[in-house]
Amino acid sequence: MRKFVAIVVTVLVTGCASQEPTVQSGPNAETTFDGLVRIDHSRFAVAWIDPDIDLTQYNKIIPGGADFEFRTVKRTSAMQARRANENEFWISDSNRQRLIDTVSDVFTEELQNSQHFTLTDERGPDALIINGALHDIVSMVPPDDVGRSEVWLRTLGEATLVIELRDSLSNEVIYRAVERRAVQSPGGQMMRSNTATNWAEVRRWARRWAVRLREGLDSIHE
């Protein structure tokens, strides 16, 4: 059962790994402050699980919300940024809100498409709370500058993704994963930076995570 649950949870959030995911065991097993045990061979940089929880008991999802934390970056003009050779840039309040709305909408859309889980706001033995967060969000898109030459970027920005799954009755965290990822095109190809293409890429980045989460949830009951 311990091995089965570990595989299910790793597929839930990360998809198939090149090596079979396993839960560490024995006196040297890495354990978090709240009793989760490290999973080896997860596609996340780090991931932990409560090895005694059977995820097949859950068929409902309670969206637990998400936190968005932006790196503190000094606001400068395009000219100042070029002179200082900066590669991290201030994000306006409107763009911060747009990022929050975009990521939230995409994840909600995908969870609503689940074949085996339904969204609910009622706690119960069959309900799983999903919490997400993006920490240390940083933009690598330079500020607008009328008349400047075209800008081509390999990476639009970065953020650290945190996903937690909780039992809705006990509020106990049963899974946690953390990984930093860049917003970039497949293969890390250079791309022309403009408002339309940048936001399209952000949406695709969020969609990849959301689809993986939704497919993983459905795989529990397949």
Give a short synopsis of this structure.
This protein has helices at residues 2-14, 78-84, 93-112, 195-219, and strands at residues 22-23, 37-40, 46-49, 60-70, 118-119, 127-139, 152-153, 157-167, 173-183, 191-192.
Descriptive notes:
There is one protein chain. The longest helix has 25 residues, at 195-219. Mean pLDDT is 81; it is low at 1-11 and 13-17. The protein has one domain. Strands 1-2-3-9-8-6-4-5 form an eight-stranded mixed β-sheet. The protein has a two-stranded antiparallel ribbon with strand order 7-10. The chain has 222 residues and is an alpha+beta fold. The chain is globular. It contains four helices and ten strands. The protein has helices at 2-14, 78-84, 93-112, 195-219, and strands spanning 22-23, 37-40, 46-49, 60-70, 118-119, 127-139, 152-153, 157-167, 173-183, 191-192.
